[in-house]
Design brief:
Blueprint (H helix, E strand, L loop, with lengths): L2 E5 L2 E3 L5 E8 L8 E6 L6 E6 L6 E3 L7 E6 L4 E6 L8 E7 L18 E2 L3 E5 L2
Parallel strand pairs: 2-11
Antiparallel strand pairs: 1-3, 3-8, 4-5, 4-9, 5-6, 7-8, 9-10, 9-11
Length: 128
């Protein structure tokens, strides 16, 4: 059972930056594809980004392309989401998640149900 823990959220002004971390608790993240989702009040949960476990291939939602960067260091058992040029509409709870099954090392589609393992989330608030 893979357990995921997010950290790094907080309050930041528009135009600022934050770096979120996703760590595998008691289990290694090696080879798992890891995605970041977010959900704002009254909105549907959105996949922000995903990074493959085997090939490191990355995916980004159009809303964050050019501003967010996903990366990983398997030696540190961590995946990061670097968020720059933050906007008020980036305000949400951010979750990391991973798929299961025989292709757990590839990023599945962008829907929440395709990811079996999920963290509890970290709040990001962008406000002046």
């Amino acid at each position: 059972q893979l357990q995921l823990v997010e950290s790094g959220g907080g309050l930041v002004q528009p135009g600022g930056s934050l770096r979120l971390s996703c760590t595998g608790s008691r289990n290694s993240l090696d080879y798992y594809a890891i995605a970041w989702f977010r959900q704002a009040p009254g909105k549907e949960r959105e996949r922000v980004s995903c990074i493959g476990g085997s090939n490191g291939k990355t995916y980004y939602a159009d809303s964050v392309k050019g501003r967010f960067t996903i990366s990983r260091d398997n030696t540190k058992n961590t995946v990061w989401l670097q968020m720059n040029s933050l906007k008020t509409e980036d305000t949400a709870v951010y979750y990391c998640a991973a798929p299961s099954g025989s292709t757990y090392f590839y990023c599945p589609g962008p829907t929440w149900d395709e990811y079996t393992y999920r963290g509890h989330g970290t709040q990001v608030t962008v406000s002046s």
